[in-house]
Amino acid sequence: MTQIITVTNQKGGVGKTTTSAALVCGLHQRGARVLGVDLDPQGNLGFNLGLDIGSGNTIYDVLKGNCTIEEAIQPTEYGDVLPSDIMLSAAEVEFTVPRREFMLDEQLSSLRSRYDFIIIDTPPALNILTVNAYVASNGLIVPMEAEVLSLVGITQLQETIETVRDTFNPDLKVLGILINKFNSRLTLSRDILELAQEVAEQLGSHVFQAKIHRGVGVAMAPAHGQTVLTYQPDSRPAQDFQSIVDAVAGDRFPSPKPKSRLKYISKFFN
């Protein structure tokens, strides 16, 4: 069964694209068939995975009916990617057809036998693109920074999640809240962690045991068309992300390397 996972938070700069790229790359490293879908008009997911942005068809062309979804998918050494560009920023105005909340779900239906995982990166907004991602997904991963404003963004996200569950996708599950740029030595980080756990309970979920620590490799990797998993595979952030990939992959796609990160692993598929 294909797992469709959306990485989401209406606040920008919390690590959505970094997390999405790490999931695509890490699952591909384990032998899974993976597609990354970029629903952010900035188009950063494809850039992070080494695509030549600006060439070829995009998810915008697919949703407009200008090409098939197969014609827009581009292969990379880290997995397949359905790229985006700035044209997608007009989605709220242009996509006004009936059942427009199901546009992405209908397009992905033909790919469910082709991929083990589909990872969707979303824009920093609660708009029709985000709703389309939620409708198409089995589960959500919500990254946040260890700061107050990032936590506020999640509480605002809760209403949209509940609306989608009530109206379009009753099986939608929040797989976990993922804390980025975590520093256990800071009182603020520890306080935010406690508050995040309370919010996660309200969402029927939890905070991932693995926290993503700061590291220069995370910021440098996209400039080389890589994720931190390949740019600095032995760094602390890369190990943290591998722990998240471990949890998503489960027993179906174990890590090809000896498990030296057991203390970071978190199980969330109940």
Adjacency order of strands in the biggest sheet: 3-4-2-5-1-6-7
CATH architecture: 3-Layer(aba) Sandwich
Shape: globular
CATH topology label:
Rossmann fold
Describe this structure in words.
The chain has 270 residues and is α/β, with parallel strands linked by helices. It has one domain (3-264): Rossmann fold (3-Layer(aba) Sandwich), CATH 3.40.50. It contains twelve helices and seven strands. A seven-stranded mixed beta sheet has the order 3-4-2-5-1-6-7, sandwiched between helices. Helix 8 links the parallel strand 6 (139-145) and strand 7. Helix 1 packs across helix 12. The chain starts with a strand and ends in a 21-residue tail after the last helix. 49% of the residues are buried.
Task: Pick out its properties.
270 residues; alpha/beta; Rossmann fold; seven-stranded mixed sheet; 12 helices; globular; disordered C terminus
Kindly summarize this structure in a few lines:
This protein has helices at residues 16-29, 44-48, 59-64, 69-72, 91-94, 103-108, 128-136, 148-167, 187-202, 216-220, 228-231, 236-249; strands at residues 3-7, 34-38, 74-76, 79-82, 117-121, 139-145, 173-180. Helix content is 40%, strand content 14%. It has a single domain (3-264), classed as 3-Layer(aba) Sandwich (Rossmann fold).
